[in-house]
Amino acid sequence: MRALAFVLVFAAPVLAQDGGVNGPTIGTQCSGPDDCKVDLASGTCSTDGGVSSWPAPKEGPACGCVKNVCHFIVIEKVACRVDADCALATEPVLHAIPAVPSKKKSKPFRPCKDGERQPVCTDSVCTIRSWKC
User: Are 59 and 75 in contact (CB under 8 A)?
Assistant: First the structure.
């Protein structure tokens, strides 16, 4: 298990840069979030076997289903100082991303009215807070 964790954290980003692609994996068809799995050997997505990305990891390689095709992504930590530095991306899997700078003052997040998932800055890293709605 430790070897798998090591591969996911350290080797997969290298695989993605050399052999894999951030984006669609040609030849894959999916209908749901758990259909696409990370193929560690190739650094891409597979529907035949691999490691499930559901729910999405906080960091490392992940695969998700977008328009019935598996998409590969390497999720990286996002540095932050305040919650406004963080945003959410929903495709190919739900993950934290840097917020686009805005001159407008952002309104406070209202749980369940604005959404069930909130991007927050925890220990100087963007994370996702889930609300039971």
Answer: yes
